[in-house]
Every structure is written in structure tokens, then in C-alpha cells.
Amino acid sequence: MIRLGDGLRSSIGTKFLMAVSGVLLLGFVVAHMLGNLQLFLGHEALDSYAQKIQDMGALLWVARAGLFTLLVLHVGSALKLTRQNRAARPIPYGVHKPFQSSYASRTMVMSGVIVLAFVLYHLLHFTFGAVDAESYALAHAGAGLQVHAMVVHAFQQPIVALSYMLAMALLSLHIAHGVGSLFQTLGLNTQRTRCAATRLGKGVGAVVFLGNVSMPLAVLAGWVGGN
Ligand code: HEM
User: Fold this and answer.
1) Atom 11 (ligand 1) nearest CA
2) Is it true that domain 4-89+106-220 has CATH number 3.30.43.10?
3) Distance between CA 225 and CA 153 in Å, rounded?
4) Segment holding 129, helix H or strand E
5) Beta carbons within 10 angstroms of residue 146's beta carbon
6) Where are the domains of the chain?
7) pLDDT at 148
8) What is the pTM of this model?
9) N or C end of the chain: smaller count of CB under 10 Å?
10) CA-closest residue to ligand 1 atom 40
């Protein structure tokens, strides 16, 4: 009988772990996006939402620990699979002609690394205030959190808004391919589901892209201003 630990360490188990952690991380990305879209409802809506999250206290730290664990599992299993793939083919192809693989699938590792770099930058930006002290000071100037002012000030700087948009494009490509491969990983791929899975991946990627890009774009265009 295969024990659970051995199963998860096997190549299929690692893929399964990557898929499950990926789906849960996607859940966070969508929930975070829906919360952030309150930017369009004005500062009261976004600020009181951010304050409610901040007031969760210990529960917030449990959620953060869960999120961090998912990230470690997702990145860890991706690294392990990449290592296994390389070991299975120590001599690279003389001429590499990808057959039936999309641009997104060939660049999963690269887009993953850039998304990870974005998340680190994003935390230093909005959570720790290390890269844009002026925006961060705006959020903590009054009695309650003023996240709306912080986000608007950040995205009024073209270089910040554009780098967010670029990161969102790569995140969406990563998600589109990840969702598209999910069925295969779970062993549900048939001729019929393959096409539906690809379409679902592209749809989810497009929703994440449009929702997230709308915020820096709206601020940059002046549609969403200060208080
Ligand atoms: C335009 C898009 C986005 C905006 C406007 C935005 C905004 C914010 C803000 C304002 C915070 C700080 C909240 C606070 O400290 O009160 C935050 C935290 C965070 N964001 Fe984003 N975010 C965006 C996209 C993303 C994406 C795409 C990801 C993941 C891929 C992400 C991951 C996180 C994480 C992990 C935190 C820390 C949560 C915590 O521990 O409190 N964000 N975001």
C-alpha cells in the first residue's frame, strides 16, 4: 500500500500538490481583486473594507500563515518538477522545436518567477511601506486606514502603474495556463475536456487581467482621483 507521504513525494503527487495549492492561491487572487475593486466605490468603501481586514487580529495572521504555506508548496513543487524534468533529459534538445505547446506553457517558470518577484515588491510597497514611503504615509496619516489614498497616490506614478499592469499580464498568462492544465493534472483530460479546459483557463486569465489592470489604468487616466 502506498503511504500518503510517499504518494505526495512522487511526481504525480507533486503535480497534484502544485495544482491544489495553485487553485487555492487563485482563490486568494480573485477574492483580493474583488475587495480591491471597491476602489471604484470611493474611499469610504475601500478604507472600511481594509480596516475590517486589519481588525481581524489573530485570524488575519492565521490567514497570512495559510497563504504563505500555499506559496511555499506551490513554488517548492514547481522547483521539484523542474529539477526532475531536467534530470530526465540531462542533454538538452539540439534544435528545440516545441510541438503543440503554447507560449504561456513554455514560459511557466519564467512568468512564475516574475509573479513571485511582483508579490515581494507588492508587499514591500503596500504592506511594509519600504519602496514608496510617501504613499504608505498617506494610508497611516489619519485615525483609520486610508488605503484608497495610498493606492491612488501609488498609481498616479506612471512607472508604478505600468509595472503593475505588466505584472498583471504575466500573472494572467500564468493563471490561464495553470487552469488549462488542471484537468490533465487531475487525470480528467479527454478529447472533449481539453478544449473546454483551455477556454476556461483563458477566461479566468482574462477576468483576472481586466479586473486588476482596471485599477492602475483608471487612476493613471484620471478616472479615479484622490479623496
Ligand atoms: C491592482 C492590483 C492590486 C491592488 C490595488 C492591490 C492592493 C493591495 C493593498 C492595498 C494591500 C495592503 C492591504 C493593507 O495592508 O491594508 C495589498 C496586500 C497584498 N496583496 Fe495586493 N493588490 C493588487 C494585486 C495583487 C495581486 C495580483 C496579488 C497576488 C498575486 C496580491 C497579493 C497581495 C498580498 C499577498 C498582500 C498581503 C496581504 C496581507 O498579508 O495583509 N495583490 N494589496
Assistant:
1) 126
2) no
3) 9
4) none
5) 22
6) 4-89+106-220
7) 95
8) 0.90
9) N
10) 64
